Amino acid sequence: MNIFDAYNLDQQAAITHLKEQGYVVIKNLLDTNEIELLSKAINNIFKQERENPFDPSNNNDNEDDQSLHEYLINSYKISEDESKRLMNRIKHTSKLNHDTPWPLPPEKMNKSFLHVPTLFDYDKSQRIWNLPAKLHQCEKLIEHPILLSLVRAMLDDDCVLSDISATSIGPNSGGSGAWHIDAPLTQMPEPLPEIPLAVQNAWIIDDFTVDNGATHVVPKSHLSRKKPGWGYDDIENEIILSAPAGSLAMWTSHTWHKSGENITDKPRRAILGYYIRSWIRPWSDFTRVLSEEQAKRYSPTSRYLLGYSAYPPNRG
Fold first, then answer.
1. Which tens digit of pLDDT belongs to each residue from 211-255?
2. Closest C-alpha to 201, from 18, 5, 4, 12
3. In 3-state terms, what secondary structure has residue 180?
4. Contact between 135 and 297 (Cβ < 8 Å)
5. Starting from the edge strand earliest in sequence, which strands make up the sheet with 257-259, in order?
6. Per-domain boundaries in the chain
7. Domain 4-52+121-305: which topology?
8. The model's pTM
9. How confident is the model over 130-160, as pLDDT tens digits?
10. Nearest 5 degrees, angle CA 259-CA 277-CA 138?
11. How many Cβ atoms are within 10 Å of 207's Cβ, its own excluded?
């Protein structure tokens, strides 16, 4: 696997690699102090949210609760407690939306309309959602000039941030993630669009290794314009994005990828960003979770990426 170095980076070569292979890895983008600050900050949030998970109650029961619950436990490796919290979150959001039903079953719905697990791999692994409201160092990551140059080379200048979250693949997590591509492509028929609609990136906080759950990708799979199918088996020609902490890994949304299995005794952490063309509905609406004071702390570039001035106005 070819790894580029930020100290002597040929950006055009990195862009070409991303376009042709469907992924790129660049090392030495974050220094030791930056990695340590991010590591401590997200560890604190992981601890707080594991001890006090978001679990809204006082929700109405709905006639499709059973089928929705079955879909969740069949789709994700989650504990019974997490499945109950997940149902509470979904019903809470439904209540905020006047209990408006979906026109399709959950497996056919846009995944951005659904809550997905915060604790997974049967509570061994964890995510932090709404990171811009919880981690003030987000701005440097969101608008990092090298990252944005690659994103805009793929999506043009008018792109926004669909989501940014932190993830921790827990020690001895018990299996890899499933092969997948990313929304909105999951809802589209084959052949998938020829142009890239989204680009995902991982800021690597812990070294990505063969043993600790580093991301797997299938080079050039984005050129097939096909979906991999939701499965866990090895795929011919897959590679593992092994790279040191402080590196940036990127792949297009239609490149087949999955998280690996962590067979070590330590977590494997990363901060994941997801950029989309501005006319695609994002995964997260950060304008609803950031306070006015928090929003003002972000630069104009970051605010637009976070969705400010990027939604339809109230036209009176």
1. 999 999 999 999 999 999 888 899 999 999 999 999 999 999 999
2. 18
3. strand
4. no
5. 239-240, 215-217, 257-259
6. 4-52+121-305, 54-117
7. Jelly Rolls (2.60.120)
8. 0.95
9. 999 999 899 999 999 999 999 999 999 999 9
10. 60
11. 15
